[in-house]
Amino acid sequence: MKIHIVKRDTCPFWKKCCYYAGAVLLALLLGAALLASMGVDPIAYYTRMFTMGTVGNKIAYKVWINYLKELVPLALTSVALSLAFKMKFWNIGGEGQFILGAIGAAFVAVKAGPILPGWLTLTLMCVAAMVVAGLYGLFVAALKVRFGTNETLMTLMLNYVALYVLIFLGEDKGAWNFFLDPDSLRPVFASFSDIISFPSIPMGDKFSLNICVVLTVLIGVLVYVYLKHTKHGYEIAVVGDSAGSAKYAGMKVNTIVLRTVFLSAALIGLAAAFKVGTAGILSTAITDDVGWTGIIVAWLSQLNTAVIFVVSALICVLHYGSTVAAATFSQVDSSFANMLQGVILFLVLAADFYTRFRVVIVKKGGKDNG
Amino acid sequence: MSEAYAIELKGITKTFGSVVANKNVDLNVRPGEILALLGENGSGKTTLMNMLSGIYQPDGGEIFVDGQRVSIDSPEDAKRLGIGMVHQHFKLVDVFSAADNIWVGKEKAGLFLKKERNTQIREMALKFGFDIDPEKKVYDMSVSEKQTLEIIKVLYYGAKIIILDEPTAVLTVQEVRKLFDVLRKMKEEGHSIIIITHKLNEVMEISDRVAILRKGEYITTVDTATTTEQALTEWMVGRKIDLNIERTPMNRTRPLLEVRDLTIRSDAGSIAIDGVDFYIRGGEILGVAGIAGCGQKELCEAIAGLRPLEKGKMIHKGENIVGLTPKQILEKGISMSFIPEDRLGMGLAPSLSITDNMILKKYADTKGPFVDRKIGRADAEEVIRELEVVTPSTETPVRRLSGGNVQKVLLGREIKAGPNVIITAYPVRGLDINSSYAIYNILNKQKQEGVGILFVGEDLDVMIALCDKIMVLCHGKVMGVVHAHKTTKEELGLMMTGALDLTYKYEDKPAGLAKDTRFGETEEEAAE
């Protein structure tokens, strides 16, 4: 007996949905088994996690505000990554670009915050973050275009360069280091939340919607239109699909690559500016791993901008909810969410395989026709 | 069984989806003989050999090795049965030495690299008269050295039956001679050799018998000694079928595209096109005939501006086009469509819809930042209607269409752009008769409208019926330009293999130079 893998011609939409839903369900079941083995009631845990503790909570609006704070950088980073991924440029450097963007934004906040009006500082923070992160990405794209270097390796390694720059800024107590709190004996990042912060739009009596959420949704719509309906988006699709055909059609492939990667990295920088501008402080954990998680989200969404928002919202529920649940169930660490996320990704990718291939079992010798 | 064969195939059939690659093929190889496998492109030679080497499994039929019925399910099975194949595209690890490339595939090599491997392999190379350094890295090797290594590899694994897929395509004349010496030596040692080639002169020189395939079907096997190149050509190409393609009389215009002394290098760096002259008038179809890979692709790419020239001049309506970008050449009205072996590589974005592919060359022409898909959709609908493209909708990804429909989409778009020169290579590659005729009709219609067409083709019957003139290439050189209504397939075949050179058939001028050339008009530009 032998196993053959046969390519499917088509897979109906409902079948795809079933496969994906089945994969998520299976992942949750595996998680439940693990929870049960730790002596935790899986249903109670999942209920707590998926409601993020909002049920019966008097300050549920705070949960939502904090939840959105986590969602914004993740969704925006995934959207940005999808731009590069659509072109088959494997930008694994979301972390590094995010960190440099954050440093750029913090620089403006510290230096310009006390002098300039608030709105101008915030705008400058965004611009600075986008330019710095964008150039960091552009550097890799330029190397690829000029020397044919592998962008996956380059962006990956530059993540660590950026991270150690940030750690250096967080630990060097030199007199020049304006990122640190001058009043503290130990090296800690200075908070500028009382100087500058992104404003919120009050809604209802308690809840207020941070402007970053509105901007992120707006950018999502713009990127959707950019990819689907503009000439640039068309070029990205063609270059990603067949660089040979793009050249043949007279496209300037190198320019398109440079432009798109800059835009992708710049949007990640913007996500960092949003994060820094709401947190009001740098930290070595400023990225919250969105550069990594964003890759997963972009892939799970199959680079569809609208789906990215849905998937990142769900992933955030997972993360935020597990932190909340960890407070109630002390034996389960909040990194349970990471594990669950990994299992989900793994199983969804497996399901993806089954939407494209069928497994056929062939009996040895049966094909000989005797 | 009256005779003992090293390998015998009976009724082998293989289909890929709806394409029948091999249909009921019988083939046998005696021990210690060289069998040449002859056939046009797409006649199923490589598919058949891939079944022997375990890459594909036949859908029907039987394989016997030394009289024993076998089932070859994997390359490992083939190796165990003593069948080794040297593929057209080498399967070597670049950063390994010659010896390590052989060692890596050895079944009982053990965990550790042993020093003796170098001496062992050197000794075995010497036995067959190979000249190779076992410690040389593959990336330092020339093409012929890599091929030698591939042959040593299959011999080392104990192959008694060796299959060579177009081994001479990449070699120089001297290297071919060396290879043939090796093959003869192997034959003396009792090895059976199957050699796939297009070159009739080589078939005559090296083989004992010749098996011929045509369009996936087995035609016959003949003794080389009792046959002629003409007879082989006829078997290979088949009887002349009456193609009702009307060759519309051409209205001669002055040359649209003229090419002088064109020299182009291939990706590998060898000379692919060597000092070629030709011209295309409006309202004529110039065919380009030649065995596969003798510079057709490089020629098309160079005209479209996709490949730099080594030297040479190209003028379009008297204006220099050398050094222009692909976009500028497009704007001059020169359209190029090349159908590669995989049919999707060039000119189409396979994951995008028909609509999106329609606008590939003109999406930038509209104003504003947005893509106007309305134009694309209208074009798509028109092409689907006029060329009878079978597709669920205009939004179907091109990848999902069948080969013939993909080619119709590609050619339809090129014609929609209203070019004055069409360069088209293998437009009917892999198409059935009906789709092929649809394509011929499209080309004829364009010709009547005064478009100059360069038609790079495979099927000589079609070229004789469709083209006005035929230029024959052999190893990147022009063997002559003949009038299609005056030539014969035999003549073309001889020219293709380099046996006949008609470059100076017409005494007054070499082939490929127009009497009413526009080159004089642009002396200054051309001089650069």
Written description of the protein model:
The complex is a heterodimer of chains A (370) and B (528). With 370 residues, chain A is mainly alpha-helical. Chain A has a domain at 71-312. Chain A has helices at residues 13-37, 42-51, 60-86, 94-112, 118-147, 151-171, 211-229, 231-241, 243-248, 253-279, 290-300, 305-328, 336-356; strands at 2-7, 200-202, 208-210, 357-362. Chain A is globular and about 75 Å long. Residues 365-370 of chain A have low confidence and may be disordered. Chain B is built from 17 helices and 20 strands. In chain B, the strands form 4 sheets. A 6-stranded mixed sheet of chain B has the order 6-7-8-3-9-10, sandwiched between helices. A 6-stranded mixed sheet of chain B has the order 16-17-18-13-19-20, with helices on both faces. A 4-stranded antiparallel sheet of chain B has the order 2-1-4-5, covered by helices on one side. Classes of the chains: A mainly alpha (370), B alpha/beta (528). Chain A binds chain B through residues 2, 9-10, 229-234, 237-238, 241-242, 244-250, 364-365, 367-369, and chain B through 57-62, 71, 73, 304, 306, 325-328, 330, 336, 344-352, 356, 359-361, 363-364, 369-371, 400.
Number of domains of chain B: 3
Strand order, biggest sheet of chain A? 1-4
CATH homologous superfamily label of the largest domain in chain B = P-loop containing nucleotide triphosphate hydrolases
CATH architecture of the largest domain in chain B: 3-Layer(aba) Sandwich
Q: Biggest sheet of chain B, in brief?
A: 6 strands, mixed
User: Which structural class matches the secondary elements of chain B?
Assistant: alpha/beta
The beta-strand count of chain B equals 20
Going by helix content, strand content and strand pairing, the class of chain A is mainly alpha
**Arithmetic mean pLDDT of chain B:** 80
Number of strands of chain A: 4
- What is the number of helical segments of chain A per DSSP (H or I, 4+ residues)? 13
Q: What's the helix count of chain B?
A: 17
As a whole number of angstroms, the C-alpha radius of gyration of chain B is 25 Å
Distance between the termini of chain A: 17 Å
Radius of gyration of chain A in whole Å, from Cα? 23 Å
Record the strand order, biggest sheet of chain B.
6-7-8-3-9-10
Helix and strand pattern of chain A: EHHHHHHEEHHHHHHHE
Secondary structure: helix percent of chain A: 55-70%
Q: Determine and state the CATH class of the largest domain in chain B.
A: Alpha Beta
The overall average pLDDT of chain A, rounded, is 87
